[in-house]
Amino acid sequence: MLARARVARLVPLDSSSFFSKRLASTKSLKETLQEVIPAKQEQLRRLKTEHGQAVVGEVKIENIIGGMRGLKAMLWDASVLDPIEGIRFHGHSIPDCQKVLPPAPGGKEIIAESMLWLLLTGQVPTTEQTRELSRELAEKGELPEFVETLIDSLPATLHPMTQLGMGVAALNRESSFQAAYERGIKKSEYWTHTLEDCINLIARLPVLAARIYRNVYRPGTPLPAINKDLDLVGNYSNQLGYGDNQSLTEYLRLYIALHGDHEGGNASAHTAHLVGSTLSDPYLSYSAALFALAGPLHGLANQEVLRWQLAMQKEIGDNITHENIKDYLWKTLKSGQVVPGYGHGVLRNPDPRFIALQEFCNTRPDLKNSPIIQLVTKTSEVAPDVLKEHGKTKNPYPNVDATSGCVLYHYGLTEFKYYTVIFGVSRALGALTQLVWARALGLPLERPKSYSMDALEELIKK
Ligand SMILES: CC(C)(COP(=O)(O)OP(=O)(O)OC[C@H]1O[C@@H](n2cnc3c(N)ncnc32)[C@H](O)[C@@H]1OP(=O)(O)O)[C@@H](O)C(=O)NCCC(=O)NCCS
Fold it and tell me: Which residues form the active site (predicted)?
């Protein structure tokens, strides 16, 4: 059963607009989706039948050999990334989301539930709907015993991302989509089973991730039970062992919500989409995505940033001046390494997610005065000019990872290798949203055409 908000008891009968507002706000996530899907299906049908031959852009050899950069070839409705403005979730910028999306009880930051609702339905949920979704996720969070046994049997030396990917893949024994597919359901019913799997997976991911953290970094400590009155990330923070740190919990809420989606072309989201297009269930699709996320150019960047900033801190000591940082930046670049936390495949401006996290730091004196955060801030004041002078990267500005891991470090969550796991908990929001929509829209198997270099040369001759 998917979330259903309780119907309010006191509805003034003489106020029809208030009444319709109340009704709208009591719809469950599934009911809301059921309402919005037909219009989207119709939009897709029109695009396909009436505009199927319209040209969107051209394909250059530089696109083919350049990792398909700039190639407009994917459908992804939940978020659009503008190179200058940054990410928008169904048209809402990050500051818009911070204004309208309901936070956790007693909290201020956006949370995974309200972001998930927005991504899935394109609508801003009411507080009541958000709370009901939190409760549903808490109720569905328990891991099957065999997955607990599997995770507990893994060596602590196995990378937490490998463990997370394995755990998620193993959860597919529970897949409603797979079972229904084997029974032979109609294509029009695919999305409801996919939604069920996605909600179950989102509910279980943090529990799985917390179990991995405990096994690897806090062996022998008891894992608290899920608290049905807490939101998804409130529970995650609690299970990690940081539940009494409200600042860190709020930070995790913000980070996980903000990082939930970043268009379709990034490696993890794209992987989930590609694997899902074969009708693999959401567990297998997202497990594949997690292994894409584990790469240093993608999800591993936040730990790389921290490692690099700490090495810088060690070298320059307390004398944090722009000049010293500049020297260190050049030393990094001259040794042939990239400056972690800078640059982006699409963005050509400072990442609004970086700005939101920096604002979070600025409003909290402990973070504002933290040596590592001060170093991050000072580095961001110098690095763009150095990178411009270096002249290689198309985007010399900080991305979200320039600061994300450093805040965790400040709060005592110092296990670098774990940081990508938190990213993995977050990115499920967008990648799984897209799987639901891919099934609702009946999107086909993804199968781009590839060329050999000889074939390209032939093409040029012609
Ligand atoms: C994010 C990233 C992978 C994007 O890659 P991209 O789309 O290929 O970026 P560009 O088109 O700007 O790359 C052009 C050149 O600039 C270099 N470059 C890009 N970012 C750089 C950085 N932060 N420091 C130094 N050089 C950089 C690239 O390595 C490339 O060099 P090459 O031609 O010798 O191969 C890249 O900017 C990077 O490696 N950044 C550091 C890691 C990071 O922060 N990742 C998190 C992303 S959210």
Answer: 298, 344, 401
Q: Is 401 in the pocket of ligand 1 (CB under 6 A)?
A: yes
Assess whether the C-beta atom of 161 lies below 6 angstroms from ligand 1.
Answer: no
Ligand 1 centroid distance, CA of 383 (Å): 14
- How far, in Å, from the CA of 344 to the mean position of ligand 1? 6
Token digits of residue 257: 């919500």
Using DSSP's 3-state secondary structure scheme, residue 33 falls into helix
Residues 183 and 280 in one domain: yes
Instruction: Give catalytic residue positions.
Output: 298, 344, 401
Instruction: Say if CB 424 and CB 164 are below 8 A apart.
Output: yes
One domain for residues 321 and 177: no
pTM attached to this predicted model: 0.92
Specify the residue with its C-alpha closest to ligand 1, atom 11.
394
Q: Which of 120, 112, 107 is nearest to 28 (CA)?
A: 120
Averaged pLDDT of the chain? 93
Whole-angstrom distance, CA of residue 401 vs CA of residue 420: 10
Q: Whose CA is nearest to atom 36 of ligand 1?
A: 343
**Is 392 a pocket residue for ligand 1 (Cβ < 6 Å)?**
yes
Q: Are residues 218 and 162 in the same domain?
A: yes
Same domain, 334 and 405: yes
Residue 123 lies in a domain: no
Whether 113 contacts 28, CB under 8 Å: no
282 with 308, same domain: the answer is no
> In this structure, which residue's CA is closest to atom 17 in ligand 1?
393
| Atom of ligand 1 minimally distant from the CA of 345 | 7
The DSSP secondary-structure symbol of 88 reads E
Query: What is the residue range of 352's domain?
Result: 301-410
Give me the pLDDT at residue 93, please: 96
Q: How far is the CA of 392 from the centre of ligand 1 (A)?
A: 8
- Write out the two tokens for 366: 């402990």
Span 252-274, pLDDT tens digits: 999 999 999 999 999 999 999 99
For residue 90, the tally of other CB atoms under 10 A from its CB is 18
What tens digit of pLDDT does each residue of 413-439 get? 999 999 999 999 999 999 999 999 999
Give the nearest ligand 1 atom to 337 CA.
25
Q: Is the separation of the CB atoms in 420 and 302 below 8 Å?
A: yes
Residue 304 corresponds to which tokens in the numbers above? Answer: 């790389």
Q: Distance (Å, rounded) from C-alpha 446 to C-alpha 253?
A: 33
Please give the structure tokens belonging to residue 76: 């992804």
Q: In the numeric block, which tokens belong to residue 406?
A: 């450093």
Measured distance CA(208)–CA(401) in Å, rounded: 23
d(CA 301, CA 314): 20
Is residue 351 left, alpha or beta, with left meaning phi > 0 and alpha meaning psi from -120 to 50? beta
Lookup: tokens for 360:
């979070």
Total domains, the chain: 2
The answer as to whether 127 is a domain residue is: no
